[in-house]
Amino acid sequence: MSAAPGQPTSKGLIRSLVGIRGYLSVVVVAVHLAPFAIALVPLTAPFFLPVWHHAYVALDLFFVLSGFVITAGYRGVFARWPGWGAFGKFLWARLSRFYPVHLAVLAVLVGAVLGARAIGREIPHGGDLGVDLLRQITLTSGWGGADALTWNGPVWSLSAEWFCYLLIPLLQPLVLTLRTRTACVVGYLLACAIPLVAYSVIGFDDATITYAMPLPRALGFFLAGACLQQLVHVDRRLPALAGRWTGPLAVLGLALIVLMSTLEVSTMYALPVVGLTVLALGEERGWLDRALSTRSSMVFGEVSVAIFLTHVPWLLGASLLINPRTFPGGWGWLGIALLLAGVAVCGWLAFVLVERPGQRIMRALVKRPAKAPRASVEEKTEAAVESTPPSRDEARTGR
């Protein structure tokens, strides 16, 4: 079955790769919740301090996951230049996944800043209404050269991933030249080496890897995920072996992260091992795959983008009311619970009221080719964003 131009060619839905997104978003939320939680309940510092300083590796795994599923879905489309029309549809499909929520959150932030100024107050947002705001709107805030995270800070990672999407016509043919198991493994290691070597030289400090120079991080791990998917395509032994050891691989990766955080070494060095979890989950076997494939995990994964885009503005806004002064002593635990509940509520409301309707509107503006599949498997794997099920011919993952 050949794909229509601009449509993904992967077959089947790897449920665990949808489910894992939700749990990765929990880690990201924990990173940003940490300073508020420690202020409310100082006893939580032994837990939240390591999370705050070392759990950013969850974002790197997002990049690996994205490279894996994009390559699985569009390998046939971008094996060679498909034309500007197909490329534009690919970018539009990617943009529809997060841009409506991004713009909605940004509009709320701008409105809050302007409203506060009208009454003589100032809401800290780290940016201005000129260049900083323009970089957020154009998704270039994560391309490096910034002095700080501004407006909705986490958008830097979506911006960096957007940069990878723009390079897909160049990156995909390069990855598809890897025709042997050895070539794919070497490609994976070299891709992981891009950020590890770069930041070993210029530093792993938060400023460098998030807003001053984040592209080596995004591009390297995105390519690593693409190489893992190419390995699935050219070889069965190593992916099958990884699939049999999914649980131990995940435990080993977590142990490496804990060890490196204890030794005060960048947890990014654990990514060559942690990234293999994506390859293993792609085999759809074992207890970890089953745990990540439940209905609740799938729903969690679907809402992950909305949670990611709304949680920092919520935490910053809610902290004006939920802080050690208003929730002193033992009441701090209630404050943490309210912050977490707000994260969930804001994420769900953004998903239901903005993300899904906005996505439908954006995709309705681009008509599907007459013979296009009813649903995009890659899009479903990346967050189950299509509302229609895959066709009968898309029953499996093309292995």
Short synopsis of the structure:
The protein is an all-alpha fold and 399 residues long. It is built from 19 helices and no strands.
Structural descriptors:
399 residues, disordered N terminus, mainly alpha
Describe what this molecule looks like in 3D.
The chain has helices at residues 15-40, 45-54, 57-74, 84-118, 131-137, 155-166, 168-176, 181-202, 206-212, 215-234, 237-244, 246-262, 271-274, 276-281, 287-292, 295-302, 304-318, 331-364, 377-383. Residues 1-11 and 369-399 have low confidence and may be disordered. It has one domain. The protein has 399 residues and is mostly helical. It is globular.
Mind describing the biggest β-sheet?
none
SSE succession:
HHHHHHHHHHHHHHHHHHH
Distance between the termini: 14 Å
Poorly predicted tracts of residues:
1-11, 369-399
Number of contiguous helices: 19
How much strand content do the residues show?
Answer: under 5%
Work out the count of structural domains.
1
Which secondary-structure class do the elements indicate?
A: mainly alpha
Rg, Å, rounded? 21 Å
Helix residue percentage: 55-70%
Give the overall average pLDDT: 86
Work out the number of β strands. Answer: 0
Shape: globular
GO molecular function, one term: acyltransferase activity
InterPro entries: Acyl_transf_3_dom, Acyltransferase_3
EC number: 2.3.-.-
Enzyme class: transferase
